[in-house]
UniProtKB/TrEMBL annotation:
GO terms for biological process: fucose metabolic process. Its main location: membrane. Keywords: Carbohydrate metabolism, Fucose metabolism, Glycoprotein, Glycosyltransferase, Membrane, Signal-anchor, Transferase, Transmembrane, Transmembrane helix. This is O-fucosyltransferase family protein. The chain crosses the membrane at residues 21-42. GO terms for molecular function: glycosyltransferase activity. It is a single-pass type II membrane protein. GO terms for cellular component: endosome; membrane; trans-Golgi network. InterPro entries: FucosylTrfase_pln, GDP-Fuc_O-FucTrfase.
Amino acid sequence: MRRPGYRQPLKQQLGGVKAMFIRLSVAVIVVVICMFLLMSAMSSSNSNSSSAEINTEALWGTAASDGWRASSAPRSDWPPPASESNGYLRVRCNGGLNQQRSAICNAVLAARIMNATLVLPELDANSFWHDDSGFQGIYDVEHFIKTLKYDIRIVESIPETRKNGKVKKIKAKQIRPPRDAPISWYTTEALKTMKEHGAIYLTPFSHRLAEEIDYPEYQRLRCRVNYHALRFKPHIVELSQSIVNKLRSQGHFMTIHLRFEMDMLAFAGCFDIFSPEEQKILKKYRQENFAEKRLVYDERRAIGKCPLTPEEVGLILRAMGFDNSTRIYLAAGELFGGERFMKPFRSMFPRLENHSTVDTTGELGKNTMGLLGSAVDYMVCLLSDIFMPTYDGPSNFANNLLGHRLYYGFRTTIRPDRKALAPIFIDREKGHTAGFDEAVRRAMLKTNFGGPHKRISPESFYTNSWPECFCKKSAVNPADKCPPLDVVEILNSQMESEGISDFEASGSNLTSAVDK
């Protein structure tokens, strides 16, 4: 028991003060940490709020290149085609214009792999297009042959031969190539048959050569074909340019590939939004053209497998910040369901055009569903300020354009992520409209707007040829360095040393492949 007036020793008093100081320090630290966390949360909230805004003005320009530029000229030893080939290669390219375009690229590469002489590719005049224009009717043949002179030999037809005074015509052996065939198939089975018969005829030739090839020079050859050799005939280029000039005379313009057409809707199995009569038409078309498969609309819609409706396209653009003054060119065939599906879109964006409304020559009116109409739409979409595909699944038109615009200078593309957007649209249809625009913006901000990005399956090489067909002047990786500026002279000297004299000396076409 302490005595009255007892005072603790000084040492004990100091110990109590020290303990109190420690407790106060801990309390202060806790308060500081809480304040820091609160401020971080507020900062993060503000950051998220601001990050959900899209600068539409910036989208009218090109995407950031990060120092990359298009270049498909050879960067390593690339010998000229041999003076004697192993035979002739004929191909029949089936499908629409852009499926055929990819097939032509594959045909050139196959000819290079087999040291074959390529016969000018045949374009299938299928029942959908009702068009027998052929390669000569769509593409500039002379330009095609001249541009690829360092890569393969090309003839317009298999020449006749004379033996013992008799004219003999080489008959090409028909083969059906396996889908996405590896290079080894061409260097073994196909080459063996070619040597036996003197010529082979590969049909059909859509997706008949593997896309992913672990040899960059082969991939660059594909780019030289796609983006340099395949040039539309002058009258198509002129007509397309006149349409672009007319559209651009009033400022920026956007192109949209509105893939809301019977074949794609039937393929996707998205029927429930249509009338019973329309559903019957779609189901009949699917039964006649596609493999039988159990398709449930709600399930397909929920995972983004249905093409966007015109109204959904309008809602995306409006949420992103585009207003009703935006000038839009629609590249599309006949929209299924007619005007009732277009009406909501038109009310949001009334300044709509298509090739029939801007073609003053009337030439397209005779061939809107043929290869000419598709070629003009392709060129207008390529040259537009912004391109937006609404369904880039098996759509060769959209996929090829995405790749071409990337190569053409990282031109802006708006690629809706249908899987991410599906639940947002479904919620809106259920009446949950609050926060809709912001949710759309957040989904769109996670997409790529046309800049260089890594190709990840199932993205096609024809959609994204980076990095094989691009280079950097000051690259860290030697494989990414741009080829020498005198690459044309190098290739010419190689041809001369091989004693190949029947090629023209001009290399102007390949020069454009060095630095686009």
